[in-house]
Write a structure and sequence with these properties.
Layout (H helix, E strand, L loop, with lengths): L2 H16 L35 H12 L7 E4 L11 E4 L1 H5 L7 E4 L2 E4 H8 L3 H9 L4 H6 L3 H5 L1 H6 L2
Antiparallel strand pairs: 1-2, 3-4
Length: 161
């Protein structure tokens, strides 16, 4: 694990919540998202240069025991709550994108998934599914109609264009 990469994640987490000059502040700090006292305290500093703060040490220790590995991102389990050991975990970017507050959720036959999750399951492009719904198709029709590309094969479709 690279301490500098992890320290960058730590600094970005704090900045999203407390720096109003960040363009993503409106989605975090302006909405009341905070960092727990354990990870953010009066001794927190921006860079760890051998004289690490208590907050940084607590965050790094949590990271070592919480499944962090290269390529994962810090994700809040409940987006209405702040950053804390109880509300955070490490996930892939794809999983994190499914946890966004602006996702389009679709419920069909008792299952609620994001538009992207339905598209992945049905092997459709998300824009195909989005376009169907935007044209007024019912959810059932949008999810159960097979794609011409799937039936004919992409190469055949491409050659006719």
């Amino acid at each position: 694990m690279s301490s500098s990469k992890l320290n960058g994640i730590f600094r970005s987490m704090k900045a999203r919540c407390y720096n109003p000059n960040r363009r993503d502040f409106k989605y975090y700090g302006a909405k009341g998202v905070t960092v727990c006292f354990e990870w953010l305290n009066a001794e927190t500093i921006h860079y760890c240069n051998g004289n690490c703060s208590k907050g940084w040490k607590a965050f790094k220790e949590w990271t070592l025991f919480s499944g962090y590995r290269e390529g994962l991102t810090l994700d809040r389990i409940d987006v209405s709550k702040g950053y804390s050991p109880e509300n955070c975990h490490w996930v892939s970017m794809k999983a994190q994108n499914n946890n966004r507050s602006n996702n389009h959720f679709i419920t069909y036959k008792g299952q609620t998934k994001t538009l992207q999750q339905w598209a992945d399951e049905l092997k459709l492009h998300k824009n195909t599914l989005r376009g169907r719904l935007n044209r007024g198709w019912s959810i059932e029709k949008a999810l159960t109609t097979t794609s011409n590309l799937k039936e004919k094969g992409y190469e055949e479709y491409k050659s006719k264009r």
